[in-house]
C-alpha cells in the first residue's frame, strides 16, 4: 500500500508586491499549490507521458531540493518538489 503524506505550507511576506504571475491567472495573495513527491524526475516523466508540459527541473533556493512547475487546466501554477 502506498502511503500518502500531505503538506501545506503558507508563506506570508510583509510588503510583498503584487505580481501578475501567469498573465491574469494568479490572484493577489495566491502564489500556488505545491506537492511533495518522492522523485521530481519520475513525476515529470509521468506527466509528460500524459501530455502535460512542465518547466525545466531546477533547485529550490529555499529548500535546496529539486522542483518544477506545471499548470492545471485553468492555467494556474502547480509546483512539484522533493
Could you explain the architecture of this structure?
With 82 residues, this protein is of the alpha+beta class. The chain has a domain at 33-81: Roll (2,3-Dihydroxybiphenyl 1,2-Dioxygenase, domain 1). It is built from 1 helix and 4 strands, in the order βαβββ. The protein has one helix spanning 40-49; strands spanning 33-36, 58-59, 66-71, 77-81. Strands 1-4-3-2 form a 4-stranded mixed beta sheet, with no helix packed on it. β3 (66-71) and β4 (77-81) form a beta hairpin. The protein is globular, with a radius of gyration of 14 Å. The protein starts with 32 loop residues before the first strand and ends with a strand.
Low-confidence parts: none
Measure the end-to-end span: 20 Å
Give a quick account of the main beta sheet: strands, pairing sense, barrel closure.
4 strands, mixed
From the structure provided, what is the oligomeric state, counting identical versus distinct chains?
Answer: single chain
Number of separate strands: 4
Give short descriptive properties of this protein.
12% helix, 82 residues, globular, 2,3-Dihydroxybiphenyl 1,2-Dioxygenase, domain 1, alpha+beta, 21% strand, 4 strands
